[in-house]
Specification:
mainly beta, Porin, 2 domains, 16-stranded antiparallel β-barrel, two-stranded antiparallel ribbon, 2 helices
């Protein structure tokens, strides 16, 4: 039997052993916990790397899908379907113009009317960035016709080619879009320039866009005429135009948007189709035609100095045209060279503060009656004059049924409800002059009084 001191010593020894063993046990447990935490961190890191890689794969797949997905755009510029890289695209646009024509003191002529002036579905496309096409049928008027049909090849900004049917690059106002001229009808100056023709044209911009040029070979058409879809004669016209904006790169200069140029054509015309079918007033009434037997036979040429200026809300457009044609009174009659001349000056000012532009006014707000926004308003004025060569009378044109001069002025208001929608309200007045020997009262009812016309137009162009 242990004695009490012995028992005490044994208990004390046991206590010492236990107190020494517990810290060791605790240290071992702590190391195990750390090891376990490290393992958990390693597993979590591995899972995170897997998730990150899966997300990278998803992003790569999405990027690849985006590169292959066509882009669809619908806005006031039309409907566009384009490849993801923009290299290929097809665009559908439209133009509809409904006119109301009202004539005052017109001597009883029945010419007040509603007219579908233009109704076009415009298809344009681009392939491989450098190749393009345009196809424009016309559904306005009394029959369906072809307005434009051409192909384009762009080598760079300085050299681009166009093949097919399109506007001949002579008239400044004629080259402006049908949607955005100051007035709903172009001035009488446009009577003296060719309209659309079949041909090949090279054009481009050089010196940072300061100079724009165009030169081409065309089938050749008479003043104010459009080509047919075929050109079978041997006579061709050379047409050229240079248009410069000398201050384009002078930021802040009041002349930054001033542009000036000159254009012209040179060729030979034959037969009755080689001379104009008639010159028209702002109200689209004919005031001059050659005699039915008169034919073109010989050289024809045109020259047209022109200028356009924009400064803030102010816009000014001016041009002069000299058109020369050789004609005979019949197939065997004497030939004469006739020179007809015209000029115009047109001014517009945007009352609501938007910038005037050759490409139309973009209103700051769209018309919304509920919200009290009204779009943009522009006032316009124009004076133009066209003179027929006095040598045209009486051998090549009737002195009693034609005017030898038309002097016209116009005043108008343009209301841009949006970029795509426009109302125009234009008043035109034209005074006629007559060649020596003309009767006191013309045999043409249109010429017995000044033309006074009020033409309104509702237009949707996108």
């Amino acid at each position: 039997m242990r004695t009490f001191p012995t028992a005490i010593r044994a208990a004390f020894a046991s206590a010492v052993l236990v107190t020494g063993f517990l810290p060791a046990m605790r240290a071992q447990s702590h190391d195990d916990d750390i090891q376990a935490l490290r393992e958990q961190i390693r597993q979590l890191d591995q899972k995170l790397r897997v998730l990150e890689r899966k997300q990278e794969i998803k992003d790569e797949d999405a990027a690849a899908a985006a590169k292959a997905t066509p882009k669809i755009t619908i806005n006031d510029k039309g409907f566009t379907l384009a490849s993801a890289d923009g290299a290929n695209a097809i665009k559908l646009r439209g133009l509809v113009q409904l006119d109301s024509r009202l004539f005052f003191n017109d001597g009883g002529l029945v010419n007040n009317a509603f007219v579908i002036r233009r109704a076009r579905i415009i298809t344009e496309g681009t392939f491989a960035k450098n190749f393009s096409f345009q196809l424009v049928p016309e559904f306005g008027g009394s029959s369906v016709s072809l307005v434009d049909a051409n192909l384009g090849v762009a080598l760079n900004q300085a050299l681009q080619f166009k093949f097919g049917r399109f506007k001949s690059p002579v008239g400044l106002e004629l080259l402006q879009s049908d949607s955005w001229t100051f007035f709903n009808e172009r001035s009488i100056v446009t009577n003296l320039v060719p309209n659309r023709d079949l041909g090949i044209q090279a054009s481009g911009e050089v010196w940072g866009g300061v100079v724009n040029y165009a030169v081409g070979i065309f089938g050749g058409v008479a003043d104010g005429a459009n080509t047919t879809n075929a050109d079978f004669d041997n006579e061709k016209d050379v047409v050229a135009r240079v248009f410069a904006s000398p201050f384009k790169n002078d930021a802040g200069s009041p002349l930054q948007r001033f542009a000036v140029g000159i254009s012209g054509s040179l060729g030979r015309e034959k037969t009755a189709s080689g001379r104009t079918a008639g010159y028209k007033t702002d109200g689209q009434q004919t005031f001059f035609t050659y005699a039915a037997t008169t034919i073109a036979d010989g050289q024809s040429w045109r020259v047209s100095p022109q200028a356009d200026y924009r400064y803030g809300s102010l816009g000014v457009l001016g041009e002069y045209v000299l058109s020369t044609v050789n004609v005979r009174p019949s197939a065997t009659g004497a030939k004469a060279e006739l020179q007809n001349r015209a000029w115009q000056l047109a001014v517009g000012y945007v009352l609501t503060g938007e910038d005037s532009s050759y490409a139309g006014v973009v209103p700051k707000t769209t018309f919304d009656f509920a919200n009290g926004t009204w779009g943009a308003f522009e006032i316009v004025g124009r004076y133009s004059n066209l003179r027929i060569d006095d040598a045209a009378f009486p051998l090549y044109a009737s002195v009693s049924a034609n005017a030898d001069e038309a002097a016209a002025f116009g005043l108008g208001l343009n209301w841009y409800l949006s970029k795509a929608v426009r109302f125009t309200f234009d008043y035109y007045q034209t005074r006629f002059g007559f060649a020596p020997g003309a009767p006191a009262v013309s045999t043409a009812p249109v010429l017995r009084q000044d033309e006074k016309a009020f033409i309104t137009r509702f237009q949707v162009a996108f």
